[in-house]
């Protein structure tokens, strides 16, 4: 299971469910291809919109939800990549080291991207302690009211049932370029890299 609906945050907070529980079997036996896998490789450049669940035609001003800390400046980087995650979400936790390594590699190539982690954990301090125990991972901001995550994601063009992890790509002025829900792989990040830095 590589997705957890954000609305399940409320269920998880009240019922203690974890996102690594097995998904119900639909009986079809077929696995669903991701949006990124559906894009056929070609000699053409990857288009960012093809890799997203929601991509405005023009950069969209982003209204941030209330956060537990201050948002760091981008310091001259071209993009901000926001990763909405939670400690209880297995695919979220699994992809954090991949994100950290990938963005460090991009920065070495002068492909400036600021990685901003944004936790939907009910206990912001627990999220910080979790990351502190994992060397190489950046600190995380948290939503002050995780129960409002679904409303915020809906305002960004994602459906109310969008899954975490959620990835947002913002331009240098923190305007929304792309929103994508669900886990991300190294291959996905390579495609995003080609789209962002042709």
Q: What features would you describe in this structure?
A:
The chain is an alpha/beta fold and 198 residues long. The protein contains six helices and eight strands, in the order βααββαβαβαβββα. The protein has a six-stranded mixed sheet. The radius of gyration is 16 Å and the shape is globular.
Secondary structure topology:
Blueprint: E1 4-5, H1 8-15, H2 35-38, E2 60-61, E3 79-85, H3 90-108, E4 113-119, H4 124-132, E5 140-142, H5 149-155, E6 163-164, E7 166-170, E8 175-181, H6 186-196
Parallel strand pairs: 3-4, 4-5
Antiparallel strand pairs: 1-6, 2-8, 3-7, 7-8
Which labels suit this protein?
198 residues, alpha/beta, Glutaredoxin, six-stranded mixed beta sheet, 6 helices
* N to C succession of SSEs: EHHEEHEHEHEEEH
- Write down the overall geometry: globular
Q: Distance between termini?
A: 32 Å
Across the major sheet, the strand order is: 2-8-7-3-4-5
And the CATH topology?
Answer: Glutaredoxin
- Count of domain modules: 1
Sheet with most strands: 6 strands, mixed
Summed up:
This protein has helices at 8-15, 35-38, 90-108, 124-132, 149-155, 186-196, and strands at residues 4-5, 60-61, 79-85, 113-119, 140-142, 163-164, 166-170, 175-181. By secondary structure, the protein is α/β, with parallel strands linked by helices.
